[in-house]
Amino acid sequence: MIVYFDVVLLINFFMNFIILYLVALILNLRIIFWRLFFGALIGCLFLLGMLSEKYLVLQYLPIKVIISIAMIFMCFWPFNLRGFLKTMGFFYLITFMMGGGVLAFFYLFNIDKYSYTNTLVINNISVPWWILLISTFILLLIFKVLWPLIYNILIKDTLLVPITIVLDEKPLEITALIDTGNDLFDPISNYPVIIVELDAVKSFFSKDLEVLLYRGYEDDLAALGELIADSELAIRFRVIPFESIGKSKGLMIGFKPDMVTIFYDNKIIKTKDAIIGIYQRVLSPERTYKALLNPILLNA
Predict the structure, then answer these.
(1) pLDDT tens across 34-63, in order?
(2) What is the rounded (10 degree) CA torsion for 206, 208, 213, 215?
(3) How far apart, in whole angstroms, are the C-alpha atoms of residue 43 and residue 68?
(4) Helices 5-26 and 81-108 meet at what angle, rounded to 10?
(5) pLDDT of 168-182, one tens digit each?
(6) Sequence ranges of the domains in the chain
(7) How far apart are CA 125 and CA 78, in angstroms?
(8) pTM of the model
(9) Are the C-beta atoms of residues 30 and 24 closer than 8 Å to each other?
(10) How far is Cα 252 from Cα 236, in angstroms, rounded to an integer?
(11) Burial of 207 (0-12, 13-18, 19+ CB in 10 A)
């Protein structure tokens, strides 16, 4: 069996890059290609063990875990602890899926009957390098094209629920996604927060307040405070601190509605103990929902 180091290095770099790209794609993280490049390069460090015995320590499992952590930090820092664990989990999930895809393809087409040069070794099995490329391409196709379609079908009947927000006797009906990752609470009232696109609730606000909210209030809190103080809704507004992947600390403006009605599992759930958090960007690229529902409200 002949193994060329440059071929192994190139294939591993390519696979690392695709894995990191898929992690960013699935978790909707910001993609910076030069960071993905260096992250993928860091992931090739363990290959130095092929060149010299003094680098064999890089082949040990604890060192490989450290290398993978370094890859994640290189590509996606900053993030909080929860974001880091979530990112690492998806990194290993996609890595295992890619490895499993390689072996499945290998046995499905009985490729072990043939002999090849430039093979790679996976679990003591000699695998032609081009199978790695095919497996990577298929996985990229699944997550890039097919998975969004499958995901939308799965969540259509189970996770998407209609809700009605009432403010000053004005009802507003929108579709919300039950989001287990939304554990946001108003620090003053300790009410759960429903994150809603500004575009969906802008009819509740004056034109001046709407413009300021779209502009981004974190950079102009003083102006926003003055405008809210003169608003009829002044006593309803809240400032909610939050953390998310790619952003260690942030502030979200929210308001307390008169009532929120949730239509879930053939039941009608009504609550006054909720806060609407305003999100300036789009929550669903496919526009299937415009709000993220805190699941604790289903037990209200």
Answers:
(1) 999 999 999 888 777 766 777 777 778 888
(2) 150
(3) 7
(4) 130
(5) 889 999 999 988 778
(6) 5-154, 159-299
(7) 38
(8) 0.50
(9) yes
(10) 14
(11) exposed
Q: How far apart are CA 290 and CA 174, in angstroms?
A: 7
- % of the chain at pLDDT higher than 70: 70
C-alpha atoms less than 13 angstroms from C-alpha of 136 in its C-beta half-sphere: 16
What tokens does 215 get? 């502009």
From residue 133, give the alpha-carbon distance in Å to each of 12, 94, 105, 145.
10, 15, 11, 18
Report CA dihedral (98, 101, 154, 288) to the nearest 10 degrees: 50
Considering the four listed CATH numbers 2.60.120, 2.40.50, 2.40.70, 2.60.40, the one that applies to the domain covering 159-299 is 2.40.70
List all residues 6 or more positions away from 294 whose beta carbon is below 8 Å from its beta carbon. 179, 182, 183, 184, 185, 192, 193, 194, 274
